[in-house]
Amino acid sequence: MSEVSLNSDYDEKGKKKSGCKKFVKVLFSHGGLFILVTFYACLGAWIYIQIETPAENRRRDRKQRITMDVGDAINYMIKWMWYINGKRQSKTEYNKLIYERLDTFKQFIVSKASDSSLQYDGHMNTWEPDWTFPKSLLFTVTSIGTIGYGHIAPKTISGRLFTIMYNVIGIPLHLVFLANIGDFLADAFKYTYSRLCCRWCRWRRRVSEKKKKEKPPASRELWKDAVGNESYMPTQTVDVPIIVNLCLVSGYLVMGGFLFGWWESWDLITAIYFTFITLSTIGFGDYVPGNSFSDDTDALKATLKMLATVVFCFFGMSVLSMCINLMQEQLVVKARWFAMEVGIIEEEIDPQTKYKYKKSKRGTVMETHPDRDGNKKLCLVAAEEGESTSKTPPNVKLHPEEFDDF
What angle do CA 290, 291, 292 make, to 5 degrees? Predict the structure, then answer.
């Protein structure tokens, strides 16, 4: 092997790779995409804070002014009622004046508290900021992930325009990330399944390839086997059962249920419901993780919880993408089989294709040659070229009754 081929700085043609190509290759690797998406979400959170914080401060000041106006209105009502009480009036006239002023006061309160963005609660100094970094990061993650809780939203025109431009880039980037990580996890899970769950099958298949007169092969670690077109079990054709994928998704939902139930003080069913709504990108917004981020006593703990929530959402959507990827082909095959069974569709089957998987009772159909993979159309071979079920020459004429089950 030449020195050029051993050096990763050179491509297949022996030309030296440019720094830009190497950077792009690293950037769009599995780890590079995760870092890129994380950086994009954090950058978006910082930009939203810069855009929306001044407008939020103005809303807080407006709330304080409204609270002062309501306090002045209350003081006026008290003084006015003392003034009316000192006059000689009938009970009917007194009640009429009181009800009119109270109705005016009620409409005044309702008009001041109708704006939900002001968070009016009757107190002057209470204010829950929306655009803190944890909340902003959760907003960007749910935006590019198409979850959209709706717990906060940009109020300014510039913030809304930035949301459009930000998600035009962020959503495709997140989809590429999910597809990349989903394929990687699918291959890794299929690799693990073929080595762990099918270990006994693989061992028996390996033993059966040896001649009976020879000793069984010495035991060796199966995880060292090459992945690909192995003669004893092609790994790329191993299908992870649908029930295994469903169990994996269910286990992840239950894990998220315990985690968020502990952090947010939710019951288990509510926490599992929230996890499913999040990972499926439905995002009703009736439940939003917030208590785990508002731990003012320990800022480091709140930050770690926020990061864990973001990683949980990213990885959970990747696991869901992986399971859908593994189940998709099997569901299509099963749906096609069901359609053929009920007569919705018809499919012509080559008789040779069917007969190559079973032996003829008359001994007239040849078995697949050991050197062939069994996936190509069967060609009958002479007895001296391969193994057969009988001594009958390959050009023997098949009986019509052999095809009765077609």
Answer: 90
3-state secondary structure of 166: helix
Cα(300)–Cα(306) distance, integer angstroms:
10
Contacts of 49 (CB under 8 A, 6+ apart): 131, 132, 133, 136
**Quick check: 368 pLDDT over 50?**
no
Residue with tokens 């009620």: 106
The distance of Cα 403 from the centroid of its chain, to the nearest Å, equals: 49
What length is written for the chain? 406
Q: Measuring CA to CA, which residue among 147, 145, 153 is closest to residue 170?
A: 145
pLDDT mean over 90-97: 85
Helix (H, G, I), strand (E, B) or coil at 10: strand
Long-range contacts of range 331-337, CB-CB < 8 Å, 24 or more positions apart?
A: 331/242
For the stretch 263-272, pLDDT in tens is: 888 999 999 9
Instruction: List, for residues 314-359, the tens digit of each pLDDT value.
Output: 889 989 888 988 888 788 888 888 888 888 877 655 555 544 444 4
The 3-state DSSP class for residue 197 equals: coil
Query: Distance between CA 380 and CA 352 in Å, rounded?
Result: 10
- Taking the C-alpha atoms of residue 239 and residue 230, their distance in angstroms, rounded to an integer, is 15
The dihedral over CA atoms of 166, 168, 170, 175, expressed in degrees to the nearest 10, equals: 170
Neighbours of 140 (CB within 10 A): 24
Identify whether the C-beta of residue 261 lies closer than 8 Å to the C-beta of residue 270: yes
More confident residue, 188 or 61: 61
And the tokens for 402?
Answer: 């052999």
The terminus-to-terminus CA distance of the chain in angstroms comes to 55
C-alpha pair distances (Å), 232 with each of 50, 267, 339: 60, 49, 32
Q: Tell me the pLDDT tens digit for each residue of 126-151.
A: 888 889 888 899 899 999 999 988 88
